[in-house]
């Protein structure tokens, strides 16, 4: 009998265990994607652009045989299955709070078969000896490496005999892949992901361990956008990694699995403090707080590394990891604003915006998360800038007002600031004390 392969966050044909499983069933396979307004509307133009271009590329790799429909998957997927006479719908498992609810409902109407997931090791698999989930990264990492993972699955476009959606009648209306006016500055698609990965392995991987914290150097892999939509699978990356980069890179990929696991264990942590003690911490709101928030969003806080990061985010739809931590710390500990305001702004602009990595990256920085950076450790934006952007090149790239300031002086601006560059909106030393005072008030 025919089967349906329902694509979600796995927009590729290589290393695709669910494709292998669907093809093994023996019948012809219909490739399906459902444009779900519940996910598209909050995604922001950058992520919609990535999704649409990834779909166009997948459709091309399938010689135009990707069926794209629009609507609520809970009704659309069963209709498609009925229209092709499929006995089963195959998919990679989704572990986010929304995806789990959706899949439970779809599973009540069709035989939904999961094989693989977007993760190296799926959430829920790595536990302590007594079956409890880990709350701290390092022991999770140890256990994750002991657990191990499968080799990449050997799949491609020719793994299945694909059904032409033009031959299917009676299902939901087929739509063409939409497009966004806004284009993110990245090559999108499965082939493009593999090329970008190969460039990283050949040219930059050997320096990754030493240089990954340097936003002024293009030293990281920029795989996050491809991983987000499954244009590449982390196991493909792990199988390729050799030499000096292997350990530090594996560790970062494990962070991605760890945060997905934490969110799976605690779906409430997408919106609420993981550490409930912080529900009582004093946060600022009102008109002045809104003005500070706007200055942060627009990159005019008067702290050069913070402003550079926020301008990179809005202009490039990506930000270096070290700078994500610096700007997040600044929002929470210098401006005393709730982390979820910043997290929401990130999700609107990041092309790799991902609920698990983003919310937990924020909670970690805010000190409200798992093995959080302790709340009392407050990043100093000036010394962070001097340490990780030692010649000031990153700041000058993103803050044109400061291009006339040479070298690392661009961080402290001790000899004065150009007229068109703002004064600091807050005094870091003072706000640090204030953050510590507020924290002391909630500490048992
Ligand atoms: P590389 O250094 O090349 O790392 C390789 C891969 O490892 C990344 O692509 C990513 O999948 C994973 N990884 C690396 N660091 C982390 C981390 N700290 N947590 C989880 N996974 C990691 N990452 C996202 O993918 N989406 C987000 O929405 C997101 N929001 C973040 C928000 C904050 C406040 C912070 C501090 C971090 C956030 N991260 C997020 C993690 C990290 O910043 C990005 O994954 C990384 O900068 C992507 O660039 P890269 O692919 O060049 O990274």
Superfamily (CATH H level) name of the largest domain: DNA Cyclobutane Dipyrimidine Photolyase, subunit A, domain 3
Instruction: Tell me the total number of β-strands.
Output: 5
Radius of gyration: 23 Å
Unreliable residue runs: none
- Which band does the percent of strand residues land in? 5-15%
Mean pLDDT: 96
What structural category characterises the helix and strand content?
mainly alpha
| Widest sheet: strand ordering | 3-2-1-4-5
Helix content: 40-55%
CATH fold assignment of the largest domain? DNA Cyclobutane Dipyrimidine Photolyase, subunit A, domain 3
Coarse morphology? globular
Heterogens: flavin-adenine dinucleotide
Q: How many domains in all?
A: 3
How do the helices and strands follow one another from N- to C-terminus? EHEHHEHEHEHHHHHHHHHHHHHHH
Kindly, what is the distance between the CA atoms of the first and last residues, rounded to a whole number of angstroms?
62 Å
The number of helical runs is: 20
Shape-level CATH architecture of the largest domain: Orthogonal Bundle
Q: Largest sheet at a glance?
A: 5 strands, parallel
CATH class (first level) name of the largest domain: Mainly Alpha
Report what the structure shows.
- With 444 residues, this protein is mainly alpha-helical.
- It has 3 domains: 1-117, HUPs (Rossmann fold); 119-152 and 190-265, Alpha Horseshoe (Serine Threonine Protein Phosphatase 5, Tetratricopeptide repeat), CATH 1.25.40.80; 269-442, Orthogonal Bundle (DNA Cyclobutane Dipyrimidine Photolyase, subunit A, domain 3), CATH 1.10.579.10.
- 48% of the residues lie in helices and 5% in strands.
- It has 20 helices and 5 strands.
- It has a 5-stranded parallel β-sheet with strand order 3-2-1-4-5, sandwiched between helices.
- Helix 13 (304-316) packs across helix 14 and helix 15 packs antiparallel against helix 16.
- The mean pLDDT is 96.
- Bound molecules: flavin-adenine dinucleotide (FAD).
- Flavin-adenine dinucleotide binds next to helix 9, helix 11, helix 14 and helix 16.
């Amino acid at each position: 009998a025919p089967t349906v392969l329902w694509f979600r966050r796995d927009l590729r044909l290589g290393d695709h265990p669910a494709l292998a499983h669907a093809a093994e069933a023996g019948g012809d396979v219909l490739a399906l994607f459902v444009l779900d307004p519940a996910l598209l509307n909050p995604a922001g133009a950058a992520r919609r652009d990535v999704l649409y271009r990834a779909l166009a590329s997948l459709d091309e790799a399938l010689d135009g045989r990707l069926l794209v429909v629009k609507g609520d998957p809970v009704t659309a997927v069963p209709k498609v299955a009925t229209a092709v006479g499929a006995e089963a719908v195959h998919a990679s498992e989704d572990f986010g709070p929304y995806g789990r609810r959706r899949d439970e409902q779809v599973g009540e109407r069709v035989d939904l078969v999961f094989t693989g997931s977007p993760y190296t090791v799926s959430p829920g698999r790595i536990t302590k000896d007594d079956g409890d989930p880990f709350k701290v990264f390092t022991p999770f990492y140890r256990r994750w490496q002991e657990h191990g993972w499968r080799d990449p699955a050997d799949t491609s476009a020719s793994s299945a005999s694909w059904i032409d959606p033009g031959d299917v009648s009676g299902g939901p209306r087929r739509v063409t892949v939409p497009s966004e006016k806004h284009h993110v500055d990245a090559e999108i698609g499965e082939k493009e992901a593999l090329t970008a990965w190969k460039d990283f392995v050949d040219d930059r991987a050997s320096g990754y361990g030493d240089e990954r914290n340097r936003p002024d150097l293009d030293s990281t892999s920029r795989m996050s956008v491809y991983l987000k939509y499954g244009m590449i699978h982390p196991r493909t990356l792990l199988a390729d990694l050799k030499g000096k980069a292997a350990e530090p890179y594996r560790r970062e990929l494990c962070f991605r699995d760890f945060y997905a696991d934490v969110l799976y264990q605690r779906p409430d942590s997408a919106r609420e403090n993981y550490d409930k003690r912080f529900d009582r911490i004093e946060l600022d709101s009102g008109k002045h707080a809104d003005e500070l928030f706007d200055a942060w969003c627009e990159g005019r806080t008067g702290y050069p590394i913070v402003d550079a990061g926020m301008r990179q985010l809005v202009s490039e739809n990506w930000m270096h990891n070290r700078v994500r931590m610096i700007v997040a710390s600044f929002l929470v500990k210098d401006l005393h604003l709730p982390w979820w305001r910043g997290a929401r702004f990130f999700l609107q602009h990041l092309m790799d915006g991902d609920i698990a990595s983003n919310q937990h990256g924020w909670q970690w920085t805010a000190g409200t998360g798992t093995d959080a950076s302790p709340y009392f450790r407050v990043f100093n934006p000036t010394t962070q800038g001097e340490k990780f952007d030692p010649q000031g090149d990153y700041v000058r790239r993103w803050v044109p007002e400061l291009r006339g300031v040479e070298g690392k002086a661009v961080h402290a601006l001790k000899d004065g600031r150009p007229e068109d560059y703002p004064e600091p909106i807050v005094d870091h030393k003072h706000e640090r004390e204030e953050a510590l005072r507020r924290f002391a008030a909630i500490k048992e």
